[in-house]
Every structure is written in C-alpha cells, then in structure tokens.
From TrEMBL:
<keyword id="KW-0560">Oxidoreductase</keyword>
<comment type="similarity">
    <text>Belongs to the FAD-dependent oxidoreductase family.</text>
</comment>
<dbReference type="GO" id="GO:0098869">
    <property type="term" value="P:cellular oxidant detoxification"/>
</dbReference>
<dbReference type="InterPro" id="IPR048618">
    <property type="entry name" value="MDHAR3-like_C"/>
</dbReference>
<keyword id="KW-0520">NAD</keyword>
<keyword id="KW-0285">Flavoprotein</keyword>
<dbReference type="GO" id="GO:0016656">
    <property type="term" value="F:monodehydroascorbate reductase (NADH) activity"/>
</dbReference>
<keyword id="KW-0274">FAD</keyword>
<dbReference type="GO" id="GO:0005737">
    <property type="term" value="C:cytoplasm"/>
</dbReference>
<dbReference type="Pfam" id="PF21791">
    <property type="entry name" value="MDHAR3-like_C"/>
</dbReference>
<dbReference type="InterPro" id="IPR036188">
    <property type="entry name" value="FAD/NAD-bd_sf"/>
</dbReference>
<dbReference type="InterPro" id="IPR023753">
    <property type="entry name" value="FAD/NAD-binding_dom"/>
</dbReference>
<dbReference type="InterPro" id="IPR016156">
    <property type="entry name" value="FAD/NAD-linked_Rdtase_dimer_sf"/>
</dbReference>
<protein>
    <recommendedName>
        <fullName>monodehydroascorbate reductase (NADH)</fullName>
        <ecNumber>1.6.5.4</ecNumber>
    </recommendedName>
</protein>
<dbReference type="Pfam" id="PF07992">
    <property type="entry name" value="Pyr_redox_2"/>
</dbReference>
<feature type="domain" description="Monodehydroascorbate reductase 3-like C-terminal">
    <location>
        <begin position="345"/>
        <end position="432"/>
    </location>
</feature>
<dbReference type="InterPro" id="IPR050446">
    <property type="entry name" value="FAD-oxidoreductase/Apoptosis"/>
</dbReference>
C-alpha cells in the first residue's frame, strides 16, 4: 500500500516551514502531515543563503536559520527533531516528478506513489539557467547559481578559493547585488554585469540606483552595462572569462549567475489552471482542483488591496504569510467556518553591504525621492514615494527603523491622498509617521 497522509506539503522551503508550524499550532495529530522535499535539509529561511551564509566570519549555518526563526524567534527554529517530535514525516531528498491529482496521488522520481487527502503545493521557484538559453560555454565549470542550501555550500567553497582573483556576477537584480556584496567582502575582485541602464530596475529609479552603485563602487565593486554573449574556457572547460556583446571579454576565475527565477509549476501539466506562469489560486489559496492548494512563489493569487488583481510574488514574506494562511483556510473549511480571504500587501527587502532597505506596494505613477542630501559615502537614510491618481501607492526606505517601516506598511494599506508632491518630498519619512494611523494592521 502506498503511504497515505491527511495532508501533504509538496516542497520543503519557506512556505512549507511556516505551514507546518501553523498545522502544529492548530492541533495537528501525529502521522497526519508529510512534507516532501528534494533538498537534503529541513525547511529554512532561504534569504540567508545570499547574506549571512557567505559571510567570511561567523557565517550563518544550519540549524541556525531553519524556519520559522525569522518570524518566531529562536524558540521557533525547527530542525528535523522538531518535525519528528510533532509526528510530521519529513521526506527529504525525495523529488516528485508528477502525479494524478484527481486520484490524489503523487509520483516520485524513484517511482513511489504517495497519497494525500489535501495537498499544498509549495515548490517555489528555480533559478533561470543560461544553459536553457544555449549561451555558448554556459555549461563550463566555475559558473554558479544560488537557489538552495546545497548550491550555497558549493558557492561558498568557490568564493573562498577565488580570494584575490576576478569574479563576474551576471545580473543586476537583488540576488546579483547581494552576491556581489558577499564576493567583495570575501576579498574577491568583483564586477557586476547587466544589460539594463541601472541596477534593480524593477524597484529602483535611476537616482536610487546611483546611490547603491556609488556605495558598491566605494567598496571596490565595478559595474558594467553590457549584454553577455558567452564564456571563455580553458582546455579543461573551466571558465576563464565572460564574453561581452561588443567583442571584449572580462577575466573571471568564477562567475555567478543571478538572472531571475521562474515558478516550479511544471509538475502537473493540464491538471491545474496556470496564470502568469504560476498555479492560479483564489483568495483562499485553492487551485482549480478541490483539496489542492498552492502557496509561496508558485502561486498566482488575488491581491485584495488592488481589487483582486492576480499577481505572482517571489518574496519571502508572502511565502511565510501564505504558508500560515493556507492552513487557517483548510482548518476553517474543515470546521465549516468562513475566514477572510488572504490579504497580502506587496513587500520586499534586501541587505546589501552595510545598507538595508524595504519596499512596499507598487512602484507606479510619479516618484518622489526624498533625503538624497543625507546620503554620504557611508550611507544615510533616504526614501521614495510613488503617487498614482493622487494616492500614495508605493514606498521605499533605506536605513529605516522598525517604527518607520511599520508606518510605511500601514501607509501603503491606507493609500492616503496627496496633492503637493514638493511637500511630500520635504516631509520625507515624517509624512508616513504622521499620516499612517497606528490601528491599521500590517
Ligand atoms: C538566495 C536567495 C535570497 C533571497 N533573498 C530574499 C530577500 O532578501 N527578500 C525576499 O523577500 N525574498 C528573498 N528571496 C526569495 C524567497 O526566498 C522566496 O520567495 C521564498 O523562499 C519562497 O518560498 P517557497 O516556499 O515558495 O519556495 P522555496 O523556499 O524556494 O521552497 C521550494 C521547495 O520546494 C522544493 N521542490 C521544488 N520542486 C520539487 C519537487 N519536484 N519535488 C520535491 N521538492 C521540490 C525545493 O527543493 C524547495 O525545497 C531569496 C531567494 C533566494 C534564492
């Protein structure tokens, strides 16, 4: 008889860890839940991989960053023993390759069947590979990607070996910038290459980007705006350089690629509705099939604040919140209760060298950047608001305090009216601190 569980979580990342925690809080019985993950470790806080994990001194290592340490504190750091203690079956190094969801069956790579009554799909995203785009020599040794803990362990070794040598990071998004920061603090001569006019184009305006690029420059990181067309390799197929479109090349003892990620939504073709590349779910995170839910990076879900506009959100706070919410949704259904729909305000953060920022809402409409005069080579507090149809719909803040970030998050829920953009610029963070009402919950 194939193993059978009341609840199965497919994927063992951030959302899975938070969902398991919520199951336990809501009275899970031993033997009811299984988590299936192709990784070899229990769920952990993935953002640590491009931050503390690569630190030259006192690096973050498991079990230090197992979920749910970021929202529950050290008492909620759940290593494998926590799962055993609560009777949760952790099936690690187990890859699911498909299944028949109408029969409530999953199929693993080793051809085992696992049955479920309710399934939560939490397969996250996968890093986009240059080999998929057939970039010449992109299969050379010395080209790295970062998505899972096993990748981070390999990358960390390569970084230590590359001390004093040249490395190229491809991609000007947050992964590229965070990895670039990690390389330079490890003494690697780092160049970040991307084709867009400035870094983090999806969030930053040119002025905001200039602050970070200047800061990186001061730490010795070079930025090159260029398209990469291939890699230079030696006779043993080790990478030795990166070829640019203008015919030049950059020397590289190692290359790290951070050019984006795509949702892992390919396991059940034609069985579940797909939208924007993710599994389409409703406000209770239910997919198009009964008893099958999707959470985290792989779910395309309605954002209440934007009139149920469907969005994918590849960010950790959504993974945590949707992991917890889906269990509340399942419990409510079992107890014939009605709960409010999932209500997520887009949010994202990053830490880069000694700078740290948070972004809330949407970066559309007019952008008002404030506080740039405060910025010195050592950093400083500054931010931005985005105003659309007279309402503040987006906010960004570098080097804020907890209270200031809380105020911004409330502000974006309230979307207050503004008419005078000049005054908004002068008021800076004081606008959020005075306008956002303390009662609104983040
Ligand atoms: C290096 C890095 C840094 C990041 N930093 C930030 C940050 O600073 N801020 C931020 O907001 N977000 C950040 N993110 C994004 C954030 O980590 C993700 O949004 C979050 O992890 C998504 O959680 P998830 O549970 O949906 O997916 P994941 O955490 O990716 O977990 C998915 C799990 O499913 C498993 N899986 C996939 N397919 C299968 C299969 N077929 N069979 C079995 N198991 C499978 C995977 O192995 C993995 O364990 C970062 C991501 C990375 C990679």
């Amino acid at each position: 008889m194939p193993p059978s569980f009341k609840y199965v979580i497919l994927g063992g990342g951030v959302a899975a860890g938070y969902a398991a925690w919520e199951f336990v809080l809501s009275g899970l019985r031993p033997g009811e839940l299984a988590i299936i993950s192709k990784e070899q470790v229990a769920p952990y806080e993935r953002p640590a991989l491009s931050k503390g994990y690569l630190n030259p001194e006192g690096p973050a290592r498991l079990p230090g960053f197992h979920t749910c340490v970021n929202m529950g504190g050290p008492a909620e750091r759940h290593g494998p023993e926590w799962y055993a203690q609560h009777g949760i079956t952790l099936m690690l190094q187990t890859e699911v390759i498909g299944g028949d969801l109408s029969k409530k069956e999953l199929l693993t790579k080793s051809k085992d069947i696992i049955k479920f009554e309710k399934l939560i799909i939490a397969t996250g995203s996968t890093a986009m590979k240059l080999t998929d785009f057939k970039v010449p020599n992109s299969d050379a040794r010395g080209i790295y990607y970062l998505r899972e803990e096993a990748d981070a362990a390999i990358l960390d070794k390569a970084v230590k070996k590359a001390k004093g040598k040249n490395a190229v990071v491809l991609g000007g998004g947050y992964i590229g910038l965070e990895i670039g920061a990690a390389l330079v603090i490890n003494g690697v001569q780092t160049t970040i290459v991307f084709p867009e006019p400035h870094c983090l184009r999806r969030v930053f305006t040119p002025e905001i980007a200039a602050v970070y690029q200047t800061h990186y420059d001061g730490k010795g990181v070079k930025f090159i705006q260029a398209a990469v067309v291939g890699f230079v390799v030696d006779n043993s197929l080790n990478v030795t350089g990166v070829k640019l479109k203008d015919g030049s090349s950059l020397p590289a003892a190692m290359v790290v690629v951070g050019v984006g990620a795509r949702p892992c939504s390919y396991l059940f073709p034609k069985q579940l509705a797909i939208e924007q590349g993710g599994y389409k779910v409703n406000g209770r995170l239910e997919t198009s099939l009964p008893d099958v839910y999707a959470v985290g990076d792989v779910a395309t879900f309605p954002i209440k604040l934007y009139g149920n506009e469907m969005q994918l959100q590849g960010h950790v706070r959504h993974a945590r919140m949707s992991g917890k919410y889906v269990v509340q949704s399942i419990r409510a259904q079992e107890e014939c209760r009605v709960i409010d729909d999932y209500d997520y305000v887009p949010y994202f953060y990053s830490r880069m060298l000694d700078m740290r920022w948070q972004f809330f809402g949407k970066n559309v409409g007019d952008c008002v950047v404030w506080g740039l005069a405060n910025v010195t080579p050592a950093g400083g507090k500054f931010g931005a608001y985005w105003v659309m149809d007279g309402k503040v719909v987006g906010a960004f803040l570098e080097s804020g305090s907890t209270d200031e970030y809380e105020a911004l998050s409330r502000l974006i829920r309230e979307q207050p009216q503004v008419t005078d953009l000049k005054k908004l610029e002068e008021d800076g963070i004081c606008f959020a601190l005075t306008v956002a009402s303390p009662q609104v919950v983040r």
